[in-house]
Amino acid sequence: MKNNSCSIKWKRITICGGGNGAHALMAFLLKNSNSRLNLYLPLRKELQRFQAVKDRRTPFTLIFKDEEFSIPMERLFITSNPKEGAEADLIILVVPAFAHKDILKSLAPYIRPGTVLAALPARGGFEFQASEILRQNRKEGIVIAGFQTFPWACRIKEYAKSVEIYGQKIQVGAASLPSHYGMSISRGFNKLLKLEFPPYNNMLELTLNNQGQIIHPGIMCGAFSDKLSRLYQDNEIPLFYRSVDKKTADLLESMSREILEVKRAIEHNFNLNLEAVSSISQWMLESYADDIEDKSTLFKMFQSNLSYRSLQVPVKAVNGLYQIDVKSRYLTEDIPYGLLVSKAIAELADVSTPKIDEVIERASKWIGVQYLANGKLKGKDLIRTRIPQNFGLDSLEAIAEMFKRRI
Ligand code: NAI
């Protein structure tokens, strides 16, 4: 790569994944950019469903801000072949973090130097996992990138045919490894998606500032732990974010303070800039601004955030009724690929995290896994998580060194 900056004219872009987020990103990229767009769908059923719609030349519908946009799909190339999927200047994984490993492993043998390999969102520790898989495939010169969250709250309306956007964040932090490509990635995404992607200093800021790791497990434990065995009628399913009460907001703030303590300890001892790591309230204000009607307290912000007005707690069907689904990604993604990664970094920084530990231990029991024993990283299921220790990073010196390296 020349001049320490990667090209921001991504002529060929691959989106990996066929879920809600991939539908939204595909629609916005087809609408806003002229790049050639690949959709890499390793799951055969999804490939077939997309292919059937594309063969009928049905335009795709994007429902956004009360408008319906009809988007031709001719420019979209669909594949389940990893070699074709990797033929891109920019590859964006838009899947839950537990699917990153399979996709990275399938694409890694074919990725060429100069490619930007991004996860939108990154969740915690994407950079540790991606670096390790690229190293195992003897790949060099690839820029790893990640995003602090997903820009939209969205759901598929009809598979491969339409997606609805419920809310759009004002800004989403972007970072890279090596860290100094962050500005190029940020500019490139600003242009592609016509949204603000402020550059973070390094990918550790993404891991610690991943607010989903606080919000999702925190709300599940704070607002729903006494409702797990209840059965709901279709029209009784509670809203998720709007169920935050004062006590749950306090729990979220305590968890957020513990992360800020980790930030302070690392900045103080390892000369790594983590200024993007913010409190949960600051992040809410920066991400949603005018979508929030009452900004006086975190509790009120959850109650009055318009983007949160219709999203329900995840449920599963049980005998014609509905029960809260503890195996939803709010716990199965946001703990092993989020909160636990931050906990592991806290342990390396020698910072205690009692509220975070409580949430992890309680949720682990619901999911049927063991990550912690007496607040320490000693559980038998740690191996299936993205803690840095699983990738040979056993000290903060080693982690800081990784983020300071320029090649
Ligand atoms: P989703 O559940 O709709 O999509 C899952 C997709 O991942 C599947 O359709 C499949 O294409 C792919 N996948 C799953 N397992 C796979 C495997 N083993 N191999 C290959 N592909 C596999 O998830 P969604 O909503 O698209 O979310 C993507 C990410 O965005 C997640 O991290 C989620 O937490 C985050 N996010 C999504 C939001 C939304 O409103 N959709 C809002 C905020 C964050």
> How many helices in DSSP terms?
15
Q: Order of strands in the sheet with the most strands?
A: 5-2-1-6-7-8-11
Shape: globular
CATH first level of the largest domain: Alpha Beta
Bound molecules: 1,4-dihydronicotinamide adenine dinucleotide
| Strand proportion | 15-25%
The H-level CATH homologous superfamily of the largest domain, spelled out, is: NAD(P)-binding Rossmann-like Domain
Structural class category = alpha/beta
Computed CA radius of gyration, to the nearest angstrom: 21 Å
What is the CATH architecture descriptor of the largest domain?
Answer: 3-Layer(aba) Sandwich
- Can you count the beta strands? 13
Low-confidence blocks of residues? none
Total individual domains: 2
* N→C terminal distance: 10 Å
Helix content: 25-40%
Query: Quick check: average pLDDT?
Result: 94
Outline the biggest β-sheet.
7 strands, mixed
Element-by-element helix/strand order: EHEHEEEHEHEHEEEEHHHHHHEEHHHH
User: If you consult CATH, what is the topology of the largest domain?
Assistant: Rossmann fold
